[in-house]
């Protein structure tokens, strides 16, 4: 079940979700106007291991993914799509 946040709540990060994986399908559906667009979605995780597991599942589907830590978590970490496999394997 997705969590909905009220923008005006001061304690939005109380669940301590500090990792995200943003992903999209490499298949771009053609819309009625003939244009092709990609939809990107993002999921948040409490632990890096959970984020890595989800990213691996996305990659196995043939989709692309990026990952990283959410603000205000420090140290900030960003994983580009070119390094996602190294990150999953623990080499990044």
Describe the structure.
Helix content is about 20%, strand content about 20%. The chain contains two helices and four strands. It has helices spanning about 50-60, 85-90; strands spanning about 20-25, 40-45, 65-70, 80. Strands 2-1-3-4 form a four-stranded antiparallel β-sheet, covered by helices on one side. The longest helix has 13 residues, at about 50-60. It is globular and about 45 Å long.
Number of strands: 4
**How helical, in percent, are the residues?**
10-25%
Sheet having the most strands: 4 strands, antiparallel
Shape: globular
**How do the helices and strands follow one another from N- to C-terminus?**
EEHEEH
Strand order within the widest sheet? 2-1-3-4
Q: Would you spell out the secondary-structure blueprint of this structure?
A:
Blueprint: E1 19-24, E2 40-45, H1 48-60, E3 64-69, E4 78-79, H2 84-88
Antiparallel strand pairs: 1-2, 1-3, 3-4
